[in-house]
Amino acid sequence: MPDYIIYILNFSLGIHLLLIAICVHRVWKGENGLDRLLGVDLLGTLILAVLVIIAIRDQQPLYIDVAMGLAAVGFTSSILLAKYMADQQLR
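The structure corresponding to this sequence follows.
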């Protein structure tokens, strides 16, 4: 793999890690439950992106499989948390 692609992937990885830190701050200091729910959902998406970037950079297809499994769990948990939040607002 050419060096410039590795530099671009490392730069992208750094940006994603910065975005994860911002997202964790939003989850930690969210104003209400909906902000925290959106933060957790975005955090899962960013972690998936980091796993894919690492898989491409290191040429390890195992990370893609882990990312796909995490995506399935993340989707299910997002649906369950959204249903829980909707049920709490109805009461």
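Residues 3-90 form one domain.
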